[in-house]
Amino acid sequence: MDYMKLSKEVSFALRHEPWKYELELDENGWVDIDQLIESLRCDRKWKSLDRKDLEIMIEKSDKKRHEIHNSKIRALYGHSTPQKIVKADKIPPDVLYHGTPKYFIESIREKGLIPKSRQYVHLSSDTETAIQVGKRRAENPIILKINAKQASIDGVKFYHANDTIWLVDSIDPKYIIEK
Ligand code: HQG
């Protein structure tokens, strides 16, 4: 089985267009794993798919994108569905990073970080992840350093997606401390 292809399709279903799979995310983004399997099996490629495959997909993935808990599965970040996924807020590390192409910098300096088509702005606790994220769009991304400590003190809420990724509704330019 092509686990990378499976992961991309599961992300599409759980982050972007669950209705195409006759799925409805609950307020925390969970769906019933059996319903997802049943829906994916309609496609010849996934006709023999079972829960074990989804577990292997998560285990083999380069990033922790999905999680399974009992009879449910969800995407941990990246959502663009109309109904905003509810996340519990958590105190962030003092500094977080965001990798982006140079051509966005002027607009970011002016407007701050905005979620664009996703529900949240994605930040990371390490520069390596930020570089990887930025490299999706540019060979030499700019790595922005975010003063998460001050933002948090000022009441901005941060949400923990996985070990390295943090979510936030937006980041005002005054919290971007360095590029
Ligand atoms: C930029 C992937 C102009 C922002 C990744 C980014 C990540 C602005 C783009 C996760 C802006 C949005 C999310 C402003 C923000 N003006 N541009 N004011 N504010 N931007 O894809 O963070 O591999 O929605 O810098 O690895 O790139 O799929 O967000 O370049 O973890 O699991 O607007 O998605 O994860 O792009 O990526 P995105 P992102 P997966």
TrEMBL record:
InterPro entries: Ptrans_KptA/Tpt1 (IPR002745), RNA_2'-PTrans_C (IPR042081), RNA_2'-PTrans_KptA (IPR022928), RNA_2'-PTrans_N (IPR042080)
Record's keyword annotation contains Metal-binding: no
Gene3D superfamilies: 3.20.170.30, RNA 2'-phosphotransferase, Tpt1/KptA family, N-terminal domain
Pfam families (UniProt xref): PTS_2-RNA
EC code(s) of this entry: 2.7.1.-
UniProtKB keywords: NAD, Transferase
Function: Removes the 2'-phosphate from RNA via an intermediate in which the phosphate is ADP-ribosylated by NAD followed by a presumed transesterification to release the RNA and generate ADP-ribose 1''-2''-cyclic phosphate (APPR>P). May function as an ADP-ribosylase.
Entry similarity comment: Belongs to the KptA/TPT1 family.
The name this protein goes by in its record: Probable RNA 2'-phosphotransferase
Organism of origin: Tepidibacter hydrothermalis
Native organism taxonomy: Bacteria, Bacillati, Bacillota, Clostridia, Peptostreptococcales
